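Subject: Sanity check before I submit

Could someone independently write out the structure tokens for this chain? I want to compare against mine line by line before I put it in a report. The sequence has 87 residues.
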Amino acid sequence: MDRETELAHFAHAEKVVIEGERHIQHQEQVIAELDRDGHDTGGALALLAMFWRIQAQHVAHRDFLLRKLGEPGAASATGWRSSRCIR
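---
Independent answer below. Compare away.
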């Protein structure tokens, strides 16, 4: 695969990671609202846990592509801490 294609794959993977973070943040807000209003949060928490697992996979894939591009230092510069996904 040529570098241009690899860069395009990386750019897409980075967008997916950013979108995943937005989903996680939104779900955390939903849970807070449900909890505040006295509703059951079990299903919402299960969905959030699934989002975290998926996000960990997306981050790992993005970081793999980054390493493949030969830019290992950039992974920590993205702002996402994959350890956050492990809860």
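---
OP: Matches mine. For the report I'm noting this point. The chain has a mean pLDDT of 87.
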